[in-house]
Amino acid sequence: MSAGYRRVLVKISGEMLGGRDGNGIDPVVLQAFAEEIHAVSHLGGQTSVVIGGGNIFRGLSGQSKGIDRTTGDFMGMLGTTINALALQDALEKRGCQTRVMSAIQMHQVCEPYIRRRATRHLEKGRVVIFAAGTGNPYFSTDTAAALRAAEVGAEVILKATKVDGVYDKDPMKHPDAVKFEEVSYLEALQRGLKVMDSTALSLCMDNHIPILVFELVPGAIVHAVRGEKIGTRVYSADA
């Protein structure tokens, strides 16, 4: 890759895969996302992906319905695996070599997550999809993305969302919301900005992993990987 990032981790929420209502898997959205990842793989870099499971099940929402939080979180982890397998299928139909690696062992459907093996897959040009979060309850897939990015040496986390960056308040509800071009991790934490949860932000801050937050529109991930100006960059002020 002549410019931009050599090794990236793409983070997308499960709700994004669910389309307009955020539930289940919208085949149109899935195919569009797969096309984006496939295009990125042709740039010559190394790509990994973390998908949330909120379109299938969320541990916190289960708790409100009487399901034990720990049990609910494990159910959510299985939801991320469903999404990962769906993305793998869509990518491989485009001729893209992929590996799904799960933090929870399920040998019939995917590989167990082993850091050195994940790194080798990336070096060989395979798209690696990390499933089942961190394998532990009470940790979000945002935190899983930050952890995996640190472990495999990703140069940036590309967080694809429904808005075109980070704002001082919800732009969907407040027309006067102000967008940040850049913001430090510390400021994002202090102001409670909706970037990632505090655990994920702190992990990225400690390991100097920048986050690029942008809207998932056609071509956006490719532009981000090329290092073009897009969305909001969240960074360590002392980096």
Task: State the main characteristics.
239 residues; alpha/beta; Carbamate kinase; nine-stranded mixed β-sheet; two-stranded antiparallel ribbon; 38% helix; 19% strand
Write a structural description.
With 239 residues, the chain is of the alpha/beta class. It has one domain: 3-Layer(aba) Sandwich (Carbamate kinase), CATH 3.40.1160. The protein is 38% helix and 19% strand. It is built from nine helices and eleven strands. It has a nine-stranded mixed beta sheet with strand order 4-3-5-2-1-6-10-11-9, with helices on both faces. Strands 7-8 form a two-stranded antiparallel sheet. The chain is globular and about 50 Å long. 46% of the residues are buried. The model has no long low-confidence stretch (mean pLDDT 93).
Approximate shape: globular
Strand order of the largest sheet: 4-3-5-2-1-6-10-11-9
> Could you tell me the number of beta strands?
11
C-alpha-based Rg, rounded:
17 Å
Mean pLDDT: 93
Give the ordered list of helices and strands: EHHEHHEEHEHEEEEHHEHE
Helix content: 25-40%
CATH class call: Alpha Beta
* CATH architecture tag: 3-Layer(aba) Sandwich
Full CATH superfamily name: Acetylglutamate kinase-like
Tally of separate domains: 1
Strand % is 15-25%
Regarding quaternary structure, how should these chains be classified?
single chain
Class per helix and strand makeup: alpha/beta
The profile of the biggest β sheet is: 9 strands, mixed
